[in-house]
Amino acid sequence: MFSLPFFENERNGPKDAPQRSSEQEAQTNAEPPTTIPTDAFRNPDNVQIQVALDTFFMRIYPIPGYAFLHRASLYDRFHRGQTDQCLLLAIIAISTCLTEVDSAKREYAAQCLKKAEQLIINNLSQPSIIRTQALLLIVRCKMCLGEYSSAFPLVSLLSRFAFSLRLNYDDQRVCFLAREARRRLMWAIYMLDQTWAAGLLEFTTCPVDAIYVGLPCPEETWELDVCPETEVQLKSQTKLPGLLAADVCVSYLRDKILRCREQCTHHAAQIAGILTSLMDLRLEFPILPLDMAVCAYQCIRLLVHGQRTYGHKISVSRERVKQYQHSCLQIIQTVARTSPSVETIEHDLKSLIDETQDQNAHPENRPRHIQQQGPRQILSIHSLIARSEFVDDSDELALQEVHASDNPSAYEKHNHEYGGPLSTLELPSPLPSFDTVEHMTPGSTVASQMWLQGGNAFEGAWDEPGIGFDLIRQMQWDGMGYFG
């Protein structure tokens, strides 16, 4: 049975115990509805556990992010009474939340979720594979309930558990069933982590380069405990062993695509260097292909955009960029001699170069949002980080501008700002796009303030003044020329 928390005895203690203040009552009332008092929790019976296990393996287990529990071994441990408590509670929580609509059952599932999380937090110094499985289900359940703010820190804890247990390495000392369970758990954690990271290095806690295990085996061999003859690695060219392995590969490709956005500028610099080397030969080029003009044009645009967005990550100097601009402009002018349709690109590139040089020579002429723009994060439209209601309280660290001598009433109001209940506090605004709040439009949402709102890596990258980009017009190039 579950032991009662320490404050249960206090509630049943002497009647002359001090009464709670109105502020404490307000804090209790301000708690979200998902916060369930732990003293109201009751232990689930075997029937509830059996129903939850059946529901999980019948309806939830086929989802790739949940296919890390072995049905036969888990049922065997349950009937022998050797199943970890937090794992059973996590299974009850996720099974109920994803399949039930009854409010009473969902409320009990929330209690199980809270209790399972409590058991894991109380045993942080003793990680185990079973508790790691339970924690993964807890994070998944919180994501389904929309509790992103509380799920986010648990993802890093989950990765710490995995690496401390050496799940990223194959253990040849254990049987195949245990080895495959470790492998599936590791890949499930990786897929969860890359969903949260969305290609950002600072949010990555489970890098794929640190995983040295093969892909999950086919479901039939996993269920029947039959060791396959060969193991397939993530980056191998052999046939994928099953659907779960294919899903891992798709997650890996998505992660690589998101991370390649910052490499576009690097590739543009490499191509511009090749074109510059070609022009340094000082050869006569009577005819050049039209694609070369397009390539030179896009290289300069990506370099200019990259210096403004990823300037702290680009190793190309401004002098080198100027040299690239001059060489690429020469190539475009060479193509324009025989293809008048390229003149439009030539004029656009000249305007961009002149504007960039003017802004570099006179920084005060830049638009305000470009002057103050520094390194920033680029969140995809489906980023879970943007959905998390984190609060930026940086303003609380600075000295207050209001002084008592200037405005005593304002000073008194500020000192008593936190004297009332929590519902009267003016909390700082959320941190949706990691940009200055003063530049946001009134009434804007989290998604509307994020860069890259579209479904491709370049959409939204050309919204700044001087970097206008007509994608439709650029896609009209073919082997016959430019149709403007």
TrEMBL record:
Q: Does the keyword Transcription apply?
A: yes
What GO molecular functions are on record for this protein? DNA binding; DNA-binding transcription factor activity, RNA polymerase II-specific; zinc ion binding
Question: Which cellular compartments is it found in?
Answer: Nucleus
Q: Where is the composition biased (Basic and acidic residues)?
A: 8-18
Its BP terms in the Gene Ontology are: DNA-templated transcription
Primary location: nucleus
| Name recorded for this polypeptide | Xylanolytic transcriptional activator regulatory domain-containing protein
Q: Does the keyword Transcription apply?
A: yes
- Judging by the UniProt lineage, the source's domain of life is Eukaryota
Record region (Disordered): 7-41
UniProt feature, compositional bias: Polar residues: 19-32
Query: What Gene Ontology terms describe where this protein resides (cellular component)?
Result: nucleus
- Keyword vocabulary terms for this entry: Metal-binding, Nucleus, Transcription, Transcription regulation
What InterPro entries does the entry give?
Answer: TF_fung, XnlR_reg_dom
Q: Residues in domain Xylanolytic transcriptional activator regulatory?
A: 53-226
What is one Pfam family matched by this protein?
Fungal_trans
